[in-house]
Design a protein that fits this description.
Helix content is about 55%, strand content about 10%. By secondary structure, the protein is an alpha+beta fold. The strands form four sheets. Strands 6-7-8-12-9 form a five-stranded mixed sheet. It has a three-stranded antiparallel sheet with strand order 3-5-4. A hairpin with a 5-residue loop joins strand 10 and strand 11. Helix 2 packs across helix 5.
Length: about 700
């Protein structure tokens, strides 16, 4: 269960919704106008509350227990059915129904527990997650249930008659059993269950601690920087790195205070890693990384480390030049304190880009109103796939905040494909991360109909004002395209089974569709179709787009190397136990794979929240970027909005979700199986001023 248009549009505002448009050009399409509008509170008297996501029981907080109990009851019935069922395709269908019954509740609760503004809803959703999680652990160690699946997998005659997707889903379900220790004796199987329960608790504790602020007495800091932080009586609270602050001292203080080691959290992390290692070895793997990488494109920790080492070797000279550029910039701005430190990297790489190419976000944002960007996405999807985004008015009680927008995704011949809920605006107590959540996976139903997928995209954009719609910086626009790539992966997949729907695929493949959208977001042929000034309607000049694209390559080697360092750290933490502290490991790896000095009395790893959802898989961002780069350059670069290429991409890569081995999907798209060297070459070539030679080499 689950941690990526030119045709006319219709905008459905039902039941007399009052919409106040901000001052804007009058030529937006309906979807553009919908997102440049500020929806006012509706009069909701006499209208029935349909419940969150249209689930009637969730019109009140007590409904969580109702939907949870119903799912658990349905699970018991399906388990009995699976155990009685003769080996065949129906075995896999029942297992998928079982998975769907639990996932529809667990995935929805997983989202609500972090996003709902009402604490009582968050608390009820959290309890539901725990109860469903407990049931999943029970199922994964149910010997009789496993036997019904094993009987199918052992029956070569029946297996040979199954379609490839059904065979793969059966094997994936068996993998879930195996990593839970189904093959162990009763005592060890119970130990595996207990370790999984303990890991769930440790993971929640670590995630909560990752974002908790640290505090320091006011008198310990110079008074002139107090204004940059939150005051709490006689203390100053620091809840982040303030990486973009122009004041060197603000960045330094934030880095040292926010990353100051917490002994309790250090213990949680080290216990978490020890439990993961113990569980992996208990169920027969050499390390947790070996277990986590089974079924991925990389396949093994050794291949991942080879990939990361090759990138490091290829980028060594460029990385050093990037750090020199940043060091020179710091010397120019602050001659008395010119040593380049870890808190300087994000700031001075940005300053260097801005100075070299005159990149000032405020010059771009008037051209990137939220409505314009949504119109642009709609245009891309219509031209590539024949898909349109239609804005619909949510029913009463369907959404958790009144500024959430709902999109129907409609294909020109296939009809309605699914729904995207757009939770785009900043809200207090909302996670400050851009995320894609699967709420309901797509699958073929018994009556031949298709269960429509439903997802949420979460961003943290500024609200529109009286004077203007929401205006996006280039980075925000790119993030929007990235997250919409995940959403379309969910929408355009038409897998038979929800267990492999959309983004439920290998982690190092799941980011490919989202990262590929970033290439569309920086191509002038795409941008020119939607980027226009929200007041004058003037298009964004091509020269500004060219400067923006070239600026992204400035300090790109150092930025990539930082991601390599994080990826190596993740691999080593989940490899063979080192019998030394996580901080000592980090100090050594930072020196070898990054280059900027370790700062005494800091523990960045305690803020590395990706260790939970991406344990041993953080490299996935780099590998997915390599694949996306190859797909863009070899397939889309010459004609980015070509319908034939879009259909080929959907057919080969988006349609299968996790129902096909990931490297086979890449091979189908590129017409060859890339090597690790090809991946590295693609990543490095992104930093080159020109990649025409890459294309010619690939075609040769």
């Amino acid at each position: 269960m689950s941690v990526t248009r030119v045709r006319p549009l219709v905008c459905l505002f039902g039941r007399g919704a009052a919409v106040r448009l901000c001052r804007t050009v009058s030529t937006w399409s309906p979807v553009g106008a919908a997102f440049n509008a500020k929806v006012q509170r509706r009069l909701e008297l006499f209208q029935q509350n349909v419940g969150l996501f249209g689930v009637p029981e969730l019109s009140s907080v007590d409904g969580f227990e109702v939907v949870q109990d119903r799912a658990l009851q349905e699970t018991e019935q399906l388990v009995e059915e699976a155990c009685r069922c003769p080996a065949g395709v129906q075995t896999v269908q029942i297992f998928d129904k079982l998975s769907d019954s639990l996932c529809r509740v667990a995935d929805m609760a997983d989202f609500i527990k972090v996003a709902h503004p009402d604490p009582s809803y968050r608390e009820a959703a959290e309890k539901t997650c725990i109860n469903i999680g407990t049931m999943v652990e029970r199922l994964n160690t149910n010997v009789e249930l496993c036997k019904s699946l094993k009987d199918l997998l052992d029956n070569k005659e029946v297996m040979s008659k199954l379609d490839p997707e059904t065979r793969r889903v059966a094997e994936l379900f068996m993998f879930d059993f195996e990593i839970s220790g189904i093959h162990l004796d009763t005592k060890k199987r119970k130990e595996a269950v207990n370790l999984n329960v303990k890991l769930l608790d440790l993971s929640n504790q670590f995630l909560m601690s990752c974002h908790m602020p640290n505090r320091i007495e006011k008198k310990a800091l110079p008074e002139h920087i107090h204004q940059h932080f939150t005051k709490d009586g006689k203390y100053i609270q620091i809840g982040g790195l303030h990486a973009d602050a122009p004041d060197d001292l603000v960045r330094e203080v934030a880095y040292k205070v926010f990353l100051y080691p917490n002994a309790n959290v250090m213990h949680i992390l080290e216990e978490l890693l020890a439990c993961r290692d113990k569980l992996a070895r208990l169920v027969g793997y050499e390390s947790y990384a070996h277990r986590a990488l089974k079924g991925t494109m990389a396949k093994s920790p050794e291949a991942v480390m080879n990939f990361l080492q090759q990138i490091t070797d290829k980028l060594a000279d460029r990385t050093e030049k990037d750090f020199k550029m940043m060091r020179d910039m710091k010397t120019k701005l602050n001659p008395q304190n010119s040593e380049l430190m870890p808190w300087d990297h994000p700031y001075f790489s940005g300053v260097t880009r801005a100075e070299r190419f005159n990149i000032e976000p405020s010059l771009y944002s008037p051209y990137f109103s939220l409505g314009a960007c949504m119109e642009g996405l709609n245009g891309v999807f219509t031209q590539l796939y024949g898909v349109s985004l239609l804005a619909e008015q949510p029913s009463v009680g369907e959404v958790w905040s009144e500024d959430v927008r709902k999109l129907a995704v409609v294909h020109e011949t296939e009809g309605l494909l699914g729904y995207i809920y757009c939770d785009f605006f900043y809200r207090q107590d909302k996670p400050h991360q851009d995320c894609h959540f699967t709420i309901r996976g797509g699958r073929r139903l018994d009556d031949g109909q298709y269960q429509l997928p439903m997802v949420v995209l979460m961003l943290n954009l500024p609200h529109p004002t009286r004077a203007s719609p929401t205006l996006l910086s280039p980075g925000m626009m790119e993030n929007l395209f990235h997250e919409m790539g995940h959403a379309m992966h969910s929408m355009l997949g038409r897998t038979r089974y929800q267990h492999v729907t959309g983004t439920r695929c290998a982690t190092d493949f799941a980011e490919v569709p989202s990262i590929l959208m970033e290439y569309f977001a920086t191509d002038y042929r795409v941008i020119s179709q939607f980027a226009r000034h929200y007041q004058t309607g003037q298009p964004l000049p091509q020269s500004m787009v060219a400067r923006l694209c070239e600026s992204k390559k400035v300090c790109g080697a150092a930025d990539t190397q930082l991601q390599v360092f994080y990826s190596v750290l993740d691999q080593v933490y989940h490899g063979k136990p080192q019998n030394r502290s996580t901080t000592d490991i980090m100090i050594d790896l930072q020196k070898k794979y990054y280059g900027l000095p370790y700062v005494t009395n800091t523990a960045w790893q305690l803020r590395f929240s990706h260790l939970i959802g991406y344990g041993a898989k953080y490299y996935s961002y780099l590998m997915s970027r390599a694949v996306a780069s190859m797909v863009w350059k070899q397939c889309f670069y010459k004609d980015p909005l070509n319908r034939e290429t879009g259909e080929h991409y959907r057919r080969e890569m988006l349609a299968h979700g996790g129902g096909k081995e990931p490297m086979l999907m890449v091979e189908g798209m590129l017409q060859k199986r890339p090597s690790m060297e090809d991946f590295v070459k693609a990543l490095v070539s992104d930093l080159d001023p020109d990649f025409e030679t890459f294309i010619m080499d690939s075609e040769a």
